[in-house]
Design goal:
By secondary structure, the chain is an alpha/beta fold. The protein has 21 helices and 12 strands.
């Protein structure tokens, strides 16, 4: 994990090395100041020698100025290194997420990924900056101050050792308790972010069902859980200060008591006692800073593990060593294909599927909810890989193709239509980056999207809000179909992508497909029989298996499931998952 995280320092290695170097020089200057102070008192003030006071005073001023300069440089380099490190972490995580297959993405919630790229990275950035400065400064100051103390007086310095033992024991106790709590804290952040994200994205549903109070209560519960854990953790951390003060004042009293006796006995000078008091503060402040570092590290350990999970996640879909870059045609073959979303779970979504679809053929896919329609088409563009068997496109296994090549020739309009912030033209050009406006217009005409775009005041320059909230469901579907058509794919997959348009528009879109992309293989998943009955063949799926694969007319004769779907819809039933109500069927029959 540490190696993975440190690899993101990259171009900021120089800054990461210079920061502790200048911090060390800053500490060296500060450690010498109390020693010079002792010389001013003993050789200048007590001796009545103002020349010595001036000389040592100028030396002290020079040390302070050097310390200030080194501190500024250390701060600058550590800030650059930590901010750059955070930037690289976010970039590396984001880039790795882009390589994930759907099965990889399923392991992480959206809220969890957002928390990792924001809160967790910020924690790691702060910890890294503290490591570059305070984690260098505190131990170095501690060692140098202790050395100077023993150099001045060995016996009095034993007081420091006792103080360090007491304070270290207190810090270890606090650290062990708080680390476990902070691990829970960042998991609760995911719940909080998930609540916010879900509420905002579904705000129309929330208001339509008057569920604001319920959502407020859910958010309040998540926030309260976070609050209680933070209070518990901060309550333990608050013990740092009392423990620190107890040790500091104990050391001051001990030094003052024993130091006075040593001065009277002539074993110690006033200046040396003053230096010891300065060093004791430096030693104990170093311990306090170390405790802060440990606390920050304990907070960031949980964050580091969560970030490493994303960085080390290996995409399930590997690029072949010698990838094919050309897809000959749009033929599709399923050869004894089985698939499950959780490999090895035993719960198969698709069972032993064997099919051959000719290039340029239009195939309708129909079946009940959970029959495996979307799962089947997702395998064609390698959004998932099959557990067993193989899928071929253009006569070659999809796993032999370069992923970018495959997906550029297999256009998919998914069940959940997504539009991005930008103009209509911006969204259309996701299908073809260099598409001209005329090409975009042609694709929109084929998708029957031109009829509503032309009614917008700004036409194709109309601004689409995030998620396409300012267009209707049917308009969004047609824009997504037009975007897919711009790719001029060899295979076009429509995953229930005309469910929000009326039957007349649906028929126009299918007619446009036949005219504009006759050589493209078209797989059309639909809930309505009317959307697929004119297809060359229709695939009927049932519980992840093939129930029938034939023309509309032949399926009506030979396939009971298809016939039941057809009759349920043509006799007044709605969704094919449910048979038509008896009362409604009787009424229709009477008519």
């Amino acid at each position: 994990m540490i190696k993975t995280l440190l690899a993101q320092v990259r171009q900021y290695k120089k800054d990461a090395l210079l920061a502790p170097l200048f911090t060390a020089l800053e500490v060296l200057m500060e450690v010498l100041i109390p020693f010079v102070t002792a010389a001013i008192i003993d050789q200048g003030i007590q001796a009545g020698n103002m020349g010595q006071v001036y000389r040592y005073g100028l030396l002290m001023l020079a040390l302070a100025l050097f310390s200030l300069c080194f501190g500024v440089l250390a701060g600058r380099f550590s800030a650059r290194a930590s901010a750059g490190y955070a930037c690289n972490l976010r970039d590396a995580m984001y880039c790795n997420v882009q390589t994930f297959s759907f099965s990889n993405i399923d392991k992480f919630s959206t809220a969890g990924l957002v928390t990792r790229m924001t809160t967790d990275v910020t924690n790691l950035q702060n910890a890294f900056q503290m490591i570059l400065r305070i984690a260098v400064r505190a131990p170095l100051m501690l060692v140098c101050s202790m050395f100077m103390c023993f150099f001045i007086n060995v016996r009095l310095s034993l007081i420091f050792l006792a103080a360090i033992v007491v304070l270290a024991a207190a810090l270890v106790f606090i650290m062990l308790r708080t680390t476990r709590i902070f691990d829970q804290v960042f998991r609760k952040y995911d719940d909080l972010n998930a609540s916010v994200q879900e509420n905002v994205s579904a705000i129309r549903v929330v208001k339509a069902f008057v569920r604001e109070a319920f959502e407020n209560e859910k958010f309040k519960k998540a926030a309260d859980n976070l609050y209680r854990l933070f209070v518990k953790a901060e309550g333990l951390l608050a013990l740092n200060n009392p423990a620190m003060m107890l040790v500091v004042y104990g050391c001051i009293l001990g030094l003052s008591w024993f130091g006075a006796h040593f001065i009277v006995a002539g074993a110690l000078t006033t200046g040396e006692l003053t230096s010891l008091l300065s060093y004791v503060m430096s030693v104990l402040m170093s311990l306090m800073m170390l405790s802060m570092v440990f606390v920050m590290i304990s907070m960031s350990t949980a964050s580091a593990e969560r970030i490493a999970e994303v960085l080390t996640e290996t995409p399930d879909l590997a690029q072949p060593a010698k990838a094919d870059a050309v897809i000959p045609n749009g033929s599709i073959d399923f050869d004894h294909v089985s698939f499950s979303y959780k490999h090895g779970s035993g719960e198969k979504t698709l069972h032993d599927i064997t099919l051959h679809i000719n290039s340029g053929e239009t195939v309708g896919i129909i079946g009940g909810t959970g029959s495996g329609k979307s799962s089947l088409v997702n395998l064609v563009s390698r959004l998932y890989d099959a557990d067993t068997g193989r899928i071929c496109v253009g006569g070659k296994d999809v796993r032999s193709y370069d992923l970018e090549t495959l997906r550029s020739q297999v256009a998919v309009v998914l069940q959940k239509n997504v539009l991005f912030t930008g103009t209509i033209l911006d969204n259309l050009r996701w299908g073809k980056e260099d598409a001209t406006e005329e090409e975009c217009r042609e694709a929109c005409r084929a998708a029957c999207a031109d009829e509503f775009i032309d009614r917008f005041p700004d036409g194709y320059n109309t601004w689409i809000e995030q998620g396409g909230t300012n267009v209707s469901g049917g308009q969004k579907q047609r824009l997504c179909i037009a975007r897919a058509l711009l790719k001029r794919p060899k295979i076009l997959i429509l995953d229930d992508s005309t469910s929000a348009v009326d039957t007349a528009t649906d028929a126009k879109i299918r007619q446009a497909f036949a005219e504009h992309i006759p050589g493209t293989t078209k797989l059309i998943i639909a809930q309505r029989v009317s959307s697929v009955q004119d297809a060359d063949r229709i695939l009927v799926l049932d519980n992840g298996g093939v129930s029938g694969f034939d023309t509309h007319e032949n399926l009506l004769k030979t396939n009971a499931i298809y016939r039941e779907i057809y009759e349920a819809q043509t006799r007044g039933g709605g969704d094919f998952d449910q048979p038509a109500p008896a009362a409604q069927t009787g009424k229709d029959g009477a008519q």
